[in-house]
Amino acid sequence: MGRFVSVVVPNYNGGPTIRRCLEALFASSYDNFEVVVVDDCSSDGSREIISRFPCRLIALNNRSGASKARNVGAQNSKGEILFFIDADCMVQKDTLSRVERTVVDGEKVVVGGTYTKMPADDRFFSAFQSVFVHYSETKNDRPDYIATHAMAIEKNLFEKSGGFPEDFMPIIEDVEFSHRLRRSGSALRMNPSILVSHFFDFTLTRSLKNAFRKSMYWTAYSLKNRDLLTDSGTASKELKTNVAAYFILLIICALSLLSRKPELLLFGLPVLALNACVNRKFFSALRSAMGLPLAFLSAFYYLMVYPLAVGAGSLAGVLKYSLRLGRIQGMR
Known about the structure:
Blueprint lengths: L4 E7 L6 H9 L6 E7 L6 H6 L4 E4 L6 H10 L5 E4 L4 E3 L3 H8 L6 E7 L8 H15 L12 E4 H7 L11 H11 L3 E12 L5 H22 L11 H23 L8 H11 L1 H11 L1 H13 L1 H26 L1
Parallel strand pairs: 1-2, 1-4, 2-3, 6-8
Antiparallel strand pairs: 4-7, 5-8, 6-7
Helix pairs in contact: 5-11, 8-13, 9-10, 9-13, 11-12
């Protein structure tokens, strides 16, 4: 039969997706599991949707954030294995069986899955994001972090870890959790066959807002953690190279225009070549998942537009970190 798996799902106003999330879970080919949904004071009627499914529904009294919701869900679970996903993620029929087979008794290991190459919705910017995350998270079998959209861990190990940080940034708590467990001697392992399909519903504006927000918090955290240049999942060496190349090329173009010396543009050629070389495998992943026409559009977006949002978010993160550091020093 296999070990008992507790699927923990935090929910906050997940009305557009929580039904599909739960339908996918209860259509699983693995049958020795429970679903624990923790509702974080939703106001959109999603709690009523959840109540129609045979899952355990826990309603928080105050808006507390995803970390608190996941911790409460874990505390109220019965499984030997905890599997964390989000309310906008849909498991595959074999996802839970793969989780149960991958998590080994007694091993101090956090196992990660990832998004399917293509998303649950058919928007162009959603497709770009899903391929980007899938590629970034699966290129290393010993990743820098495990994301909570598909994180499996033995309950005993989770309890010993102290859980997710509740007094933290509104996102990337899974990065902090992963780093903390690794420092304590646990291993992080990626299993690309553990897949969930994600509903992004990304427009251009939402894609850029997401890039800005994640870059801001990730930069602030990385400066504090002193690992800003680490090749870390979606904060990958490819993305960092792309953003750096983008702004270097902007500077070269500006100098060429101001000085009226078009020959200065030649200095951009090695920058372009380096960026293309570093990102070649990602471009190949785009083509494999989307086909050549959409891959070309995605590459254009990634090279010409996306770095603006990531770069602006990074600068905001530097500012956020500096202000926080200044407040701490002022209190001494």
